[in-house]
Design brief:
The structure holds three protein chains of three kinds. Chain A is α/β, with parallel strands linked by helices. Chain A is 34% helix and 25% strand. Chain A is globular, with a radius of gyration of 26 Å. The C terminus of chain A is likely disordered. By secondary structure, chain B is mainly α. Chain B is built from 13 helices and four strands. Chain B has a two-stranded antiparallel ribbon with strand order 1-4. Chain B has a two-stranded antiparallel ribbon with strand order 2-3. In chain B, β2 and β3 form a beta hairpin. The radius of gyration of chain B is 19 Å and the shape is globular. Chain B starts with a helix and ends with a helix. The mean pLDDT of chain B is 86. Chain C starts with 11 loop residues before the first helix and ends with a helix. Chain C is mainly alpha-helical. The N terminus of chain C is likely disordered. The longest helix of chain C is centred in the last third of the chain and has 27 residues. At the B-C interface, α5 and α13 of B face α6 and α14 of C.
Chain lengths: 519, 313, 328
């Protein structure tokens, strides 16, 4: 029986989440998330990459369904099965990747499924459409004729069109997901002014952003997510930046990382195996210079969009570079391409193992063999020496500790995330690399498998391999690496040896909330 | 690709058109006479109508290789009916009905069973050709004069076929630019998944474009019947290629989401017809037609792919 | 974590249907079934004369289908094979008859093969370098080459080919040996060499293959060259058997080629396919074509049936795709 007070609180909550749980392939991504957005309120949602924010947004938007928990919106149960359900109830989303059709006009994008008709004819009443669109554009402060094609608009302008779309469905709640990443200063100011106006009209909002300063400025309340759980929530004034950051990264938990013999920690006395000088590609990376030494585990930290994966792709020859030099064991590499680099002992595990690291429908053994196939082919016809290939496959299976229950002929698609990643790792380890680049090696993997992968990484480093680890989990990098580089907006902004590892400092560098420090 | 290069690509169809006119104009004095030019438009009507239907399909990022075969079957059935004494109007109506059945057939396999459009319509092409041959018993059929009379009829001294082409163009243009269906076709062609997420009934849209394509094939067949007065076993052969070429030349993208019937497909059709006309006028080898058309398709697709890459949508 | 089953809630029929669809020998079974069903109604189905006739159809079809299989494994398609057959037939014939100065048969054959490979290379180059979709490129090729062949000969057939050349198509042991050799070579290449594995990888996930160091462009290019080469070899056989250099040679069998390959189990989506499967598919189509002809079905009924068969094959492929891999 709810008391009057509870009733009143419930009534003033526009959106409430209770105990939301979601798992992918057995890994729990949301472990019972509960918070609420009051009517007309503005809640900031913060958390590191992988904390579960996007999953939460997808659940609210009807793209995913939770395994447990309840959602309520405007006093009624809310269980959207698709984006249209969310729109119908009056919840609008301003995503990072905008869902606008560049080949259609602004007005057409807004009214794409709700064109006003000219009476009983099948024709669109263009006058009315443009009039209503113009009205909406006025409300969001965009002074552009509504018949302009979206492809002519800048990122900031497109975002305003999305907001206009939200207003056109008479949304009561707008969820902003990283709205300022592609905006200029001017556009950001314009956006904030609009947000203020919309709030004055009673719209509630959820604001998801890494730019903590903005969160402090705009939001009434803040909810902090970490590892799928709400670790802190309350009025903005009860938080400080330091408190927020420490909640986001969390205190040290139990021993997650294997012990590494102290003297085995790679140091800069080891010879540099990979040297990068002034690598640049406009819009992606700017004068990146660093060295990776033999036996060193080097971490690359930074926010999503900072350019880390892009840098790795450039180094492996998948994307072009305008300038810069890359040296491997002292030799300058003029032409960067996968076959070239593989031949010289570089290996690259991309962050998208399913779409870029595996042939999902092929067998485990076939995937494991892919990179080193030529080694088992007898020239000139490249006849496969199946025995040596099989021996290699069997050997690497035990090295990466691939689950013995999975057979060699099983399609890789049926494996768990952890085992899939081991297959990708195994594939590359067979090439006996001197440099191993790992992009998000433990994403979507359970704790047990993570430990095994960390052990492998340390083992490789002990053997003299230079390992570059890109990760969004700061804990992971701090537990694993000898040195951490921090990237922000395409530049290297910090370089810390292990003895100087400091969560706040790294996050501050990544977020840009502190002055740049170069060691 | 800089702005200038991009504008050049955008105007390529028009420039090409002017170039072709100039070329053939220089080869033969008679080419640029008004009578010849009007002739070109009239002759282009049949291909043009099919090209309009094809434009719808291409806009949705699909393709319809069966239009020529649909023309053949529709014409064959109408011919048989006419020769058996049916009234002209009924025969024409049946043509449209038959074409819609084929369109629905294509649509079903493409949208429900999810087989690639080119394979489905390739199969329909053969099924249709076979059916047509069966109906005509592989012989040419001479139709009653009523067809030829219709084809030769003139309104305001412009032949009926040209009027039909004009009407189809205008209706198609209105549908594409002024109706929800038309605008949604563009959205689906750009990105079908995004369109689905936006709440568009993509299955329905895709089915509709194949129905439209079929219907246009039927109307085009009517025009051709009016001009030839007969159905030969080669009726409609290679029309699908001419239609694709005309649409692409007119600026419609193979990859979907971009194009127009006015002026696009109109220009493309007239361009193709002009090339054919010019070849005839200059007594060029008739065997070259096929080669030239395919070379033009290739050039058009190449241009298209360059444009696609230049534009960062 | 152990392998997870596709779903625990499948009904019995679905499971049975799935295992049937997935069986490698489904097509072989269907062929035998079809043969048995039609035998009582079809006069002369089992006679040796008919068998010889059927082989004349089967061998060249299989040869082209082998090339098509390789292309399909990489995820592409080659619609121009039949016009390559026509053009090489015509060029070879011109060379080997009085028109071309009576070039010796061996040179004629070599030229035909080289031309086929060269045309395949052209397709391959355009597809890999200009990144245009395979179906439109090979469609344009098909039209162009076909038109070119017709233009070269002014629509006329070329007769009077040297006996040594005709033997290649007409002497069964030779034709059989050639076909078998090609089939075995292709099979071994796919199964036992690095190149074979690379082809599959390209079709399964070209991006992952590229990152793993597989020469994706080179392999795709090679597949089209192989397809052209196979088409030329088939042309040698067909031209020899018909004793005519014809600009429309092979025109009717385009659907048969694609149909046979897809029915056999090679996926239009790429990444899957075996020479043995293609053989079963070719066998299926041979029995079908043979029976239809013996039943004195009109040419158009045969065309309709083949169109339906290719549709059936493509539907089977799409359905199989959904069952096996849960791709939607």
């Amino acid at each position: 029986m709810t008391t009057n007070k509870e009733q009143r609180t419930a009534n003033s909550e526009l959106l409430s989440l209770r105990g939301i749980e979601k798992a992918f392939f057995g890994i729990k991504v949301l472990k019972g998330v509960s918070f609420s957005v009051p009517a007309g309120g503005m809640v900031g949602l913060v958390g590191e990459n992988g904390a579960g924010k996007s999953t939460l947004v997808n659940i609210l938007g009807g793209n995913l369904q939770p395994e447990a928990g309840t959602l309520r919106f405007a006093g009624a149960d809310y269980a959207p099965q698709n984006p249209q359900d969310a729109a119908r109830r009056g919840i609008a989303f301003i995503h990072q990747e905008l869902n606008l059709f560049p080949n259609l006009s602004i007005a057409e994008n807004i009214f794409l499924t709700r064109f006003p008709r000219a009476g009983t004819t099948p024709f669109i009443h263009r006058g009315e459409m443009h009039e209503r669109a113009a009205e909406l554009l006025r409300k969001v402060g965009l002074e552009i004729p509504s018949h302009r094609l979206v492809k002519t608009l800048s990122a900031g302008e497109r975002q305003l069109v999305e907001i206009a779309k939200a207003l056109s469905i008479e949304a009561r709640l707008i969820i902003f997901d990283e709205p300022t990443t592609s905006l200029s200063e001017r556009e950001t100011t314009r956006l904030f002014a609009l947000i203020a106006r919309l709030r004055a009209r009673g719209l509630a909002m959820i604001y998801i952003s890494h730019t903590l300063a903005d969160v402090f400025r705009l939001c009434d309340d803040i909810v902090v997510l970490r590892d799928g759980e709400v670790v802190g929530s309350g009025a903005t004034k009860t938080f400080t930046t330091e408190k927020l950051v420490s909640l986001m990264v969390g205190r040290t938990m139990n021993q997650l990382f294997p012990e590494r013999r102290a003297e085995a920690f790679g140091s800069e006395e080891g010879a540099p195996i990979l040297e990068v000088r002034d690598v640049s590609q406009s819009g992606v990376a700017e004068n990146i210079s660093f060295s990776l030494h033999r036996g060193e585990v080097l971490g690359l930290s930074g926010l999503m969009g900072a350019g880390r994966s892009e840098l790795a792709r450039i180094l492996f020859g998948l994307d072009p570079r305008e300038r810069g030099e890359v040296r491997l064991a002292g030799e300058v590499l003029h032409h960067l391409s996968p076959p070239n680099l593989i031949e010289r002992g570089v290996a690259f595990l991309t962050e998208n193992r399913r779409s870029e690291g595996l042939c999902l429908d092929a067998a485990v053994a076939d995937n494991l063999a892919l990179v080193t196939l030529p080694q088992h082919g007898r020239t000139p016809l490249r006849w496969l020496l199946r025995d040596s290939l099989q021996a290699a496959v069997t050997r690497i299976r035990s090295v990466v500790q691939l689950d013995s229950k999975t057979s060699d002929t099983q399609p890789v698609r049926t494996l768990s995330g952890g085992n899939q990643q081991k297959v990708v790792l195994g594939k590359w380890l067979l090439s006996k690399p001197k440099v191993l680049i790992l992009d998000e090696p433990t994403r979507g993997i359970d704790v047990g498998a993570k430990f095994e992968i960390y052990r492998l990484i340390h083992g490789l480093a002990d053997q003299g391999v230079g390992v570059l680890v890109i990760s969004s989990e700061l804990e992971e990098l701090m537990g694993l690496c000898d040195r951490i580089l921090v990237m922000r907006s395409g530049c290297l902004v910090d370089d810390l040896p292990r003895v100087q590892f400091d969560r706040e400092r790294i996050l501050a560098a990544a977020l840009g909330t502190a002055k740049e420090v170069k060691s | 690709m800089n702005r200038a290069g991009q504008r050049l690509l955008d105007f390529a169809p028009l420039l090409l058109f002017v170039a072709v006119l100039a070329f053939f104009g220089m080869q033969s004095g008679k080419f640029l006479e008004p009578r010849n030019l009007v002739n070109i438009v009239v002759q282009a009507s049949s291909t043009g109508i099919v090209a309009v239907g094809m434009t719808f399909v291409l806009l949705s990022a699909g393709v319809d290789l069966s239009v020529g075969a649909i023309m053949f079957v529709a014409a064959a059935i109408a011919g048989k009916m006419a020769l058996a004494g049916s009234p002209l109007a009924l025969a024409l109506l049946v043509m449209v009905g038959v074409s819609l059945i084929f369109g629905a057939f294509n649509a079903f396999f493409i949208t429900r069973v999810r087989v690639a459009a080119f394979i489905v319509t390739l199969a329909t092409l053969f099924i249709g050709r076979g059916l047509g041959l069966r109906i005509t018993e592989t012989r040419a059929m001479n139709l009653p004069d009523s067809f030829l009379q219709l084809g030769a009829a003139k309104v305001l001294s412009v032949p009926l076929p040209a009027w039909l082409f004009a009407v189809v163009l205008v209706v198609a243009h209105l549908v594409l630019t002024r109706t929800p269906l038309g605008r949604q076709i563009f959205a689906v062609g750009h990105d079908v998944e995004m369109a689905k997420k936006a709440g568009i009934r993509t299955g329905r849209i895709l089915a509709t474009v194949y129905l439209i394509s079929g219907a246009c094939a039927a109307i085009a067949a009517m025009v051709t019947l009016g001009q030839l007065g007969a159905v030969s076993p080669k009726f409609g052969e290679q029309k699908e290629f001419a239609a694709i070429t005309a649409a692409i030349l007119g600026g419609t993208s193979l990859f979907g989401g971009r194009g127009s019937v006015l002026p696009g497909t109109l220009l493309g059709t007239v361009l193709i017809q002009t090339i054919e006309n010019g070849l005839v006028m200059t007594n060029a080898n008739p065997y070259l037609y096929s080669m030239i058309i395919s070379a033009v398709i290739f050039a058009a697709v190449l241009l298209e792919s360059l444009r696609n890459r230049a534009l960062k949508l | 974590m152990a392998a997870t089953p596709v779903t625990n809630l499948e009904s019995r029929t679905t499971t049975r249907l799935r295992s049937l669809c997935l069986s490698e020998y489904l097509v072989l079974a269907l062929t035998v079934l079809m043969f048995a069903a039609l035998a009582p109604f079809t006069p002369g189905l089992g006679t040796s004369a008919n068998l010889l006739n059927a082989l004349g159809y089967l061998l060249p079809l299989f040869i082209v289908a082998v090339g098509m299989t390789l292309v399909m494994i990489t995820g592409g398609i080659d619609l121009s094979v039949t016009s390559i057959i026509a053009l090489t037939s015509v060029v070879g014939a011109k060379l080997m008859t009085s028109d071309g100065g009576g070039t010796p048969a061996i040179i004629g054959v070599l030229v035909m093969l080289a031309l086929g490979a060269g045309l395949g290379a052209l397709n391959g180059a355009v597809i890999t370098m200009l990144r245009l979709p395979a179906f439109i490129v090979t469609l344009a090729s098909m039209m162009f080459l076909s038109g070119f062949a017709v233009w070269l000969t002014q629509s006329k057939n070329i007769y009077g080919l040297p006996g040594s050349f005709l033997a290649l198509g007409q002497r069964l042991p030779i034709a059989f040996a050639l076909t078998a050799a090609l089939g075995v070579a292709a099979h071994l290449m796919l199964r036992r060499t690095v190149f074979g594995r690379w082809l599959y990888a390209v079709g399964q996930n070209a991006t992952a293959a590229h990152i793993s160091g597989v020469p994706v462009r080179a392999m795709t290019f090679a597949a089209y060259v192989a397809s052209g080469l196979c088409a030329a070899l088939a042309s040698v056989m067909l031209t020899g058997r018909l004793e005519t250099g014809s600009p429309v040679l092979g025109r009717e069998i385009l659907l048969d080629i694609i149909g046979a390959t897809v029915v056999g189990g090679t996926s239009l989506f790429g990444g899957m396919g075996k020479i043995a499967w293609t053989f079963f598919g070719v066998l299926f189509l041979t029995v079908l074509d043979n029976a239809l002809n013996l039943l004195s079905l009109s040419q158009f009924s045969i065309t309709i049936t083949k169109g339906a068969v290719i549709l059936f094959a493509a539907v089977l492929d799409a359905v199989r795709n959904r069952f096996v891999v849960g791709r939607s």
